[in-house]
Every structure is written in structure tokens, then in C-alpha cells.
Amino acid sequence: RRVVLRSRRLSAFWAATPHQILGSDELSFYYVVTVPLAWVLGWGLPEPLVERLLCGAVVEDDDDSAGDLDVARVAQWHEDLSSESGLEEAVLLELKARLLRLGATTRHGARDEAAPRGVLAGGGEAPTSVERMATFIARHYMDPIGLEDVAREVGLHPDYASSIFRKGFGVTPTRFIVQHRVSHAQRMLVTSKAKVLEVAMEAGFGSLSRFNAAFRQLCGCSPREYRATHRL
Length: 232
What we know:
mainly alpha
């Protein structure tokens, strides 16, 4: 579907939904802040906001008076993160606070008029089931889950669940689980001193060999090489 974002408005959406910028009207610049989903789920944000994001809605702040402050705030985040000032934690706390404010105005069941429940960018059959599967994976990827568990969550045969999920997200549920786990591992590798084995286990991989193989396939390097290159 097509979504029009108004200028000087904070908007939030789950980037796992396939998306792209189609065009702009006299746009000079825009800011994008990408936050790992695991962090968002761990921040204790209001459930109505989390529900809408995980169901594929674009949540836009309706407060007309917040524009100037948001532009100044995001510009400051950009400067802080670009200057190696050591203020990463401060930026994260401020971002969490901003999303808490956004969540305070979000109601249960509220939907964008252009985004009724059950509509994903990829279309396809049984989209509500697809949303529920994606939500289940996002909440449980660190647990020992597989395709059968995801399919059981929505009461579908694993083959059919995999088929409709791929139509909605472009990958199979199994691949989606691995992507979440590798993303979690990437964060740990650059933000902690945990051993590679500890990273693999916490991210949800059952063995170090499986972790190394999946990580290399998605990142093009080993976990140790990734840490050496991207360490904060």
C-alpha cells in the first residue's frame, strides 16, 4: 500500500515490512532512526503502540506542536552519534522517552485508514496469520523455536504457513528467525565483551557451528571479524 508521511511529523513503523521511498514533494532532507526490534520490545512501551507496529501499521504523531522540537531533537541525535561523543546511551534513553510519548497517544485497535487490519505491503493470503507469525517470531526468536512452533501458533500446516509467510515478507519463517538471531548477535558483538559462544547461545542458536555458518552467510564474515571491524 501507499502511505503519505507529512513533513515535520514523527512516524514509526516496523522495518521488517518490505518498504521503499516512492517519491517526495519539495523534500530537502529527512532523518531515519533504525532501532533493533529486540530493544523496542524490551523498553516496555505501551502495548497499543507495540501492537500497531507489529501489525504493520505506520504510526504518525498527531501533535502539530511537536514538529520543531522533534526536528531539533533528531538533529542532535545525529550530531551525537556522528561525533563519537560517547553519548550513545543518552540518545537511546531520549529515543525511548520519545516513543513513550508517542505511545501515550496510541489507542488499542487504532488503525490508519489506508492500512486496515490484515493488509501487508506484500499482499497474499491470510495476512492476519502472517502478522501473528511475525509477531510470534519477534517475541520468541531467542527461544528454541522452529517452523512447526510458528505454524502451531496460528493453527496452520507448516508448509502452508511457510508459503503465506513468504508471500508477505519475502522470506520463510525459518529464515526470518535466523535473521533475528543474527541481528541480535551483531548487537552483542559490538556492544559487549561476551565470548562468541555466549553470543551464539543468547541469540538463540543451539550450537556454535550453526551460529558461525548462519552469521557468515548473512554477514559475509565470521563473528570475530565482524566484532573487530564494527566494535564501538
